[in-house]
Amino acid sequence: MAAFLILISDGASAASVTAAEALQLRDEVKEMFYHAYNGYMDHAFPLDELRPMSCVGEDSLGGYALTLVDSLDMLAVLGDREKFFDAVNWIGKHLRFDKNKTVSVFETTIRVLGGLLSAHMLVSDQATGMVMYDYNDELLNLAEDLGRRLLPAFDTPTGIPYGSVNLLYGVSEDESQVTSTAGGGTLTMEFGVLSRLTGDPVFEEVSRNAVRGLWAQRSHIGLVGAHINVLSGEWTHKDSGIGTSIDSFYEYLLKAYLLFGEDEYLHMFKESYKAVMRYLFKDPWYMEVNMNSAVVVWPLFNSLQAFWPGLQVLAGDVEPATQTHTAFFSVWKKFGFTPEGFNLASMSIQPGQRSYPLRPELIESTYWLYKATRDPIYLDAGRDILASIQYGCRCPCGYCHIADVETHQQDDHMESFFLSETVKYLYLLFDLALGGDNIVENGPYPYLFSTEGHLFPLTPQISLPKECCTYSGSFCPDSSKSNWMLHNATNHVDAGSPLKVFLLPYS
Ligand SMILES: *[C@@H]1O[C@H](CO)[C@@H](O)[C@H](O)[C@H]1NC(C)=O
Question: Residue 419 carries which DSSP code?
């Protein structure tokens, strides 16, 4: 099977994707989405996730119809009003969070809170074409209820939240004091938007304090570790990298700035980015190093690192992004998938890290690089990735994880992020090649993606700093303070094109 797929890849690279083929590929991605979505709805809903090989459901996270909530804005991207409205209606009527369930603060925020908020902003806004007339803020009310149930996790001396919280009873006495940097530092977009939509500042404040708590513990060379004690602020795992356990901490520093226009986040992003490029970047790869000494501990590519080139595009640093994408994609081509870990010293799979759980990060970066450069090699890469998933992962009721990227043995699991991210970025890639007739490229606002691929619009209500906006719709008088204006003025990677691309010229 591996050899077969590599053959496909090599054969495909001979001829670049044409417009006719982009259309066919986009339709194939759409069919992929519905195979997985309908499989979930028919066999697993309202449980959290589908087991796509045995065609049954399981409550893998909080028992809150996870895959449905995570899929909402993809239905909107596809313009599927019927299924979108059905889903919104069901959620408004039936979804409840008063459950005796201990859930991950991070996963619940990015998947469920983010899914509810993005869908709320789509369904309640005339300008999106997805408005539902009998909608009464049901999703926003659910998001607020969920947000309040997560708040007890933030009651720590450092401001960094515990990793898990019980939705009914708060933080349990035997909850671990250790959490990951990504877990504490990837909440600002969702919590900030929740504050701006409800008018209650508490959510934005706790998520900002969590980032400040992490930032305060950075090493003298500006690096953060992977795991930290939320009570003492001591690092319990001092490896610094851009992948596992840290990745979206960096992502949300930049995106929180882009969304809310607060200079503090931009400053933290720039300082962190400088440290990463100085100590972790070994062109074109990234190492895991000790956060204090910068000594390399792991010469390892892990598949979560693959989001980084996409983030670099957002930061306006496209050149190193192209180099790194080429290197990461070479690992994909070698196996037909990226393994969770690939050792760069031995150039072989890291023992125990042989799986590919349908992760989106490489295709996400592929989309961003195509958007920034319009180089057709990124469409070719997308075609290869699509072919691998189609031939390797498709199973009776959805798409299966790959347990081992060498044998391509399938695993009976389908993470909800396959629908909210992997399929979404593939769809957007090929649709962009056809002109980008979708809400992300052509909608009423520029959209940012959360780390779960959810759509967050830069509406004046959300993206204007609070101090200069009374929510009356009036713009901030000082245009340098208005993020909304900043974007409309400076994001012109493809000047002359109506498409909006976020680029923050990196300096
Ligand atoms: C909550 O759930 C836990 C674990 O399932 C259980 O041990 C506990 O008794 C439940 N608490 C209540 C009050 O139902």
Answer: I
Q: DSSP string covering 28-58, please?
A: HHHHHHHHHHHHHHHHTTTSSEEETTTTEEE
451 is in an annotated binding site: yes
Q: What one-character DSSP code corresponds to residue 474?
A: P
What are the distances in angstroms from CA 112 to CA 88, 129, 139, 140, 191?
A: 13, 23, 11, 12, 12
Confidence (pTM):
0.92
> Residue 228 and residue 240: Cα distance in Å, rounded?
12
**Distance (Å, whole) CA 209 – CA 205:** 6
| 362 vs 359: CA distance, rounded Å | 8
- Residue 340 among the catalytic residues: yes
CB atoms within 10 A of CB 15: 9
Kindly list the structural domains of the chain, giving each domain's residue range(s) and its CATH number in brackets, ordered by start.
2-503 (1.50.10.10)
Our answer to whether residue 28 is catalytic in this structure is no
pLDDT for 506 equals: 57
Q: What are the tens digits of pLDDT across the range 188-199? A: 999 999 999 999
Whether residue 284 is preceded by a cis peptide bond, meaning omega within 30 degrees of 0, is yes
Report the separation in Å between the CA atom of 270 and the middle of ligand 1, taken as the mean of its atom positions. Answer: 45
Assess whether 361 carries a catalytic annotation.
yes
| Candidates 107, 251, 262, 384; catalytic one | 107
Write phi, then psi, for 325 (nearest 5 degrees): -60, -45
- Cα–Cα distance measured from residue 399 to residue 411, given in angstroms and rounded to the nearest whole number: 9
